[in-house]
Write a structure and sequence with these properties.
Blueprint lengths: L1 H9 L6 E2 L3 H4 L7 E2 L3 E9 L5 E8 L4 E7 L6 H7 L1
Parallel strand pairs: 1-2
Antiparallel strand pairs: 3-4, 4-5
Length: about 80
């Protein structure tokens, strides 16, 4: 039951929780997050099933994190190719 609530919360649009640093994200509960960082690597590729995917590497003053975005209902292929 708890995992279903978490999944529903993560896949909802909006309701972002602001964090001051990437380090804070590692201790955050599963949720939509908002943070400031600098992209130092971005790449977009066509996946095996024919949809676009983007990989972003983002850093702040102390840490880095890798993020992936996949083409779907809410993210178009144009949005994905804009990343990388």
């Amino acid at each position: 039951m708890k995992e279903q609530r978490n999944s529903k919360r993560v896949w909802s649009i909006g309701d972002y929780h602001p964090y001051d640093s990437i380090d804070d994200l590692f201790r955050a509960p599963l949720s939509n997050v908002d943070f400031v960082g600098t992209v130092f690597e971005a790449e977009s590729k066509l996946s095996k099933n024919g949809k676009m995917r983007a990989s972003l590497s983002i850093f702040d003053a102390n840490n880095a994190i890798n993020i992936r975005a996949f083409e779907g209902k809410r993210i178009s292929s144009e949005d994905i190719t804009w990343f990388g």
